[in-house]
Write a structure and sequence with these properties.
One of its GO terms (molecular function) is actin filament binding. It comes from Esox lucius. Keywords: Coiled coil. This is F-BAR domain-containing protein. The chain is mainly alpha-helical. The two termini are 32 Å apart.
Length: 268
Amino acid sequence: MRDLHFKDHFWNVDLTSTAGYDCLIQHLNDGKRTCKEIEDFIKASTLKRSLDVFKLQTEHVSLSHLQLAQTMREEARKLEDFRERQKEARKKVEQQMDALHKQRATHLKKTLESKKTYELKCRDKEEAEQNMNRNASTSNAKQQEKVGLDSYSKTKNVSLFGKIKEDWQKEHIKACEVFEAQEMERINTLRNMLWTHLNQLSQQCVTSDELYEEVRKSLEQCDIQEDIAHFVNLRRTGDKPPAPVLYENFYTGQRPLSTIQMPLSNSR
């Protein structure tokens, strides 16, 4: 089929008529106005079909993006729940360890104080033994009694502190095991979640490309000459240009066979 061109189909035999030119100008400048004939042309054109496919597939891409966003929000919610669960479990261990730390510090202080008192009494006893007066034996006995009491107190405190220290060490080991398990779970959860998220993004790219491929296929079916021919057939004004203006000799009385007929009114 022979291609149609604007230059061949927008003429008018009336020399003063600009109907063909006006038709083209109206068509080129009518992007924002709606004309029924132009609307029919757009609906029937191959470019319009491509635009429809583009719009449809773009909507599908947008929908897939919304679905991905919803999935990401769900993953974020799961991660938040996971973080809160770990926080609560860690809080219980921390509270127990804080209590043990305070108990350990208190009894350590008490043990050190009893040690200090015991050492002080021992020094007092040694000083008393050096006194060579009559009351030395009585004073020395009193000092010996005090040293014995302080020694018992120190031994008791050291023993109690040793038990507290042993309990703390056991709980510290348990806490370390709990924290290590939490850290392993956290790393594994984050790694798997990021891996899943990257897979979702990759799948989204594949899905988007498949949808865009439909648009590309539609654009391949867009025939420029077919669209031009459709518009020409819809809005053509004529295929013959105005007849030439011939010289007419008034005195000879001869008339050319094809003279121009001037219109009574301008038909634009």
